[in-house]
Amino acid sequence: MGVFSFPALKRVYISHLEENLRQEALLIGEVVREKLPDEKAIQNLALLAARDTGARVTIVDQQGSVLGDSEKDPRQMENHGQRPEIKEALAGKTGVAQRFSSTLGYQMLYVAVPVESSGEVKAVVRMSLPLNEVAKLQWYLALILLISFLMAGGAGIFAGIVLARRLTAPLCEMTEVVEDMASGNLERRVYYHEDDVIGKLAKSFNRMADTLAAKMRQISDVTNRLKTVLNTTGNGFLLINGAGKVEYANPAFVRIFRIPPDTSLLGRNYLEVAGCYELARIVEAVISSKKPQSREITLYGRGEQVLAVQGVPVLDEGDFLKGVLLVVNDITQLKRLEQVRKDFVADVSHELKTPITVIRGFAETILEEPENTEAVTEFSRIIYNEAGRMEKIIKNLLDLSKLETGNVQLKREPLSLRSIAEEAGRFLKQKHDFFLELQGDGVAMVDYDLFLQVFLNLFDNAIKYSRPPARIEVSFEENKSKVFVKVKDEGIGIPERELPRVFERFYRVDKARSRKTGGTGLGLAIVKHIIELHGGEVGVQSRLGQGSVFYFTVPTMLPCGQNG
Ligand SMILES: Nc1ncnc2c1ncn2[C@@H]1O[C@H](COP(=O)(O)OP(=O)(O)O)[C@@H](O)[C@H]1O
Ligand SMILES: [Mg+2]
User: Fold this and answer.
1) Which atom of ligand 1 sits closest to the CA of residue 507?
2) CATH 3.30.200 is the classification of domain 133-232
3) Which of 112, 132, 321, 353 is 20 to 30 A distant from 124 in Cα terms?
């Protein structure tokens, strides 16, 4: 109970008590003064006063002898002159003391005041009270305090509960809704009644839920569309993670690689799943380059199957490779058709070769007949010329189909490209007038006959499509891996929109001009095939009326595993 600071409370109470006793003692003192020295009257006064005040009243004379006492017979009482409170009072002041009374067995409070008459202390009135009342009062106070404390606490708790319920009810509801939303039900909303903080929170919460639901709908729309596309496309898709484990495979992939339909693929190694080790080469190339790679692979399972496979790196924000996406296109049918076309062209050209040679031979014979009419001579010349053109086309077509089908044995050796160009120049100088300027040189692994054909075709074009005499500049630049060759003329040029098509077979910008100059429209197609067969690339730049630059690259070395 010390918490309530009872000592302080006690002190206040006691000093109050002291003051009361002093006032009473002073009043009694007034009466005593009148009654002195009548001892009997004083004894009566003590008894009366004690009855009225409830305190013990003791009256002593100036020597300390007891004149009256409310509890004992004064004649049997010892001298009180030495009691501290009485000593004080005899000195003219108010004396106060607390002591344990062995007679009564409690702690007592004593207050003594002097009774003065003509400036002299004649007697002392002493009042005393047991302090056990104070102790009792202390407990009583403590009890009251405890009860009020409990009541206040209870009220506080009650108020707290009411307030908390008001606050937490909507929060609890929100929690429930959030949990519901987390498990997928995005249609739930929080109900709110008031526009207080909680109401505002609920409103923002609902708005957030609306946005979330809309976004989720968008995502699921996109996902569904994507799913439909992936499930119905003819292209096979396989997504593998960095460890080579399958993360996704669409139905087309399963079909193309003839995987039993209900095999579970997720988490399995892709090579084991697809049973095709050629895929590893593409995946490795993608991993090491972090760039898309494409390759054609052939499967020899049930019949031959040709697949165009594209590997695409899947990178995260830090450009770190997370996996590889393989897109597989079954091009078996396409390849078969292309083969049919190539075979057809080769067969037709081959079949036409002999009859056309015969026609040309007979036309030549008729032409040489001395008795010919003019008309016969003219017609047989036309037949002879056209048959010659046809022969050229057929020869070109045969060359082209040989190159296309890979039916040529390349005799590759390290050769100076400049010397091949010089040879082509020498050959064409026999028929045409033109300037040829060569710069630099480069040695590459090439087939002499085919590269002679490349330069013949390019120079022939430069001459044909320039005003005579044509100026041709050829430059060679060699670096570690390839030779870069440019053939530049100052001729008529090619319109920009025609540029992408000039390497197609039979494509001519100006058909009439090409025919007049004996073109077949096959020259550049042959050039492109020869360069690509050597592992190089070809291209063109041109400005109409200003000239053209045909350029190509050839590797200086053979790719691994290939020899001349
Ligand atoms: N150096 C050039 N300058 C302008 N046009 C050219 C040049 N080279 C080729 N071409 C254009 O490209 C077409 C295709 O060339 P090519 O395949 O060699 O056939 P062609 O038999 O007509 O020469 C030509 O008809 C011509 O229109
Ligand atoms: Mg040509």
Assistant:
1) 14
2) no
3) 132
Q: Is the CB–ligand 1 distance for residue 74 below 6 Å?
A: no
What is the spatial order of strands in the sheet that 293-301 belongs to?
A: 246-249, 236-241, 321-330, 303-315, 293-301
- Residue intervals of the chain classified under CATH 3.30.565.10 are 412-555
128 within ligand 1 shell (Cβ under 6 A):
no
198-228 per-position pLDDT tens digit: 778 888 888 888 898 899 899 999 999 999 9
- Which DSSP string do the residues of 210-227 spell out, in sequence order? HHHHHHHHHHHHHHHHHH
Write the pLDDT tens digit of every residue in 27-43: 999 888 888 888 888 89
CA–CA separation, 340 and 353 (whole Å): 20
Report yes or no: 63 and 92 within 8 Å, Cβ to Cβ.
no
Largest CA distance in the chain: 203
CA distance 253 to 330: 10
Q: 302 in helix, strand or coil?
A: coil
What are 55-82's pLDDT values in tens digits? 899 999 988 899 999 988 888 888 888 8
CB of 453 sitting under 6 A from ligand 1: no
Q: Is 349 in the pocket of ligand 1 (CB under 6 A)?
A: no
Q: Which CATH number is 412-555 given?
A: 3.30.565.10
Task: Judge contact between 45 and 28, C-beta under 8 A.
Answer: yes
Backbone torsion region of residue 120, taken as left when φ is above 0, otherwise alpha when ψ lies between -120 and 50, otherwise beta: beta
Q: Report the first-to-last Cα separation within the chain, whole angstroms.
A: 111
pLDDT, one tens digit per residue, over 42-51 is: 899 889 999 9
What sign for the dihedral angle of Cα 159, 160, 161, 166? positive
Mean predicted confidence (pLDDT) in 413-422: 96
CB atoms within 10 A of CB 186: 16
| The CATH number fitting domain 233-330, selected from 3.30.450.20, 3.40.50.1110, 3.40.50.1860, 1.20.1440.230 | 3.30.450.20
311: left (phi over 0), alpha (psi -120 to 50) or beta: beta
How far is residue 501's CA from residue 196's CA, in Å, rounded to a whole number?
A: 73
SS3 content of the chain, % helix, strand, coil (to 5): 50, 25, 25
Q: Does residue 178 register a pLDDT over 70? A: yes
Nearest-atom index, ligand 1, CA of 510: 27
Average pLDDT, the chain: 89
Please give the CATH number for the structural domain made up of 2-130.
Answer: 3.30.450.20
The string over 192-231, giving b where at least 16 C-beta atoms fall within 10 Å of a residue's C-beta and e elsewhere, is beeeeebeeebeebbeebeeebeeeeeeeeeeeeeeeebe
The per-residue pLDDT for 2 is 45
CB of residue 492 inside a 6 A radius of ligand 1: yes
Architecture of the domain spanning 336-404: Orthogonal Bundle (1.10)
How many whole angstroms from 294 Cα to the centroid of ligand 1?
A: 31
Query: Which listed ligand is nearest to 527 at the C-alpha?
Result: 1
Span 345-374, average pLDDT: 92
pLDDT greater than 50 at residue 243: yes
528 CA distance to ligand 1 middle (Å): 13
Token pair 């030495």 is at which residue? 82
494 lines ligand 1 (CB under 6 A): yes
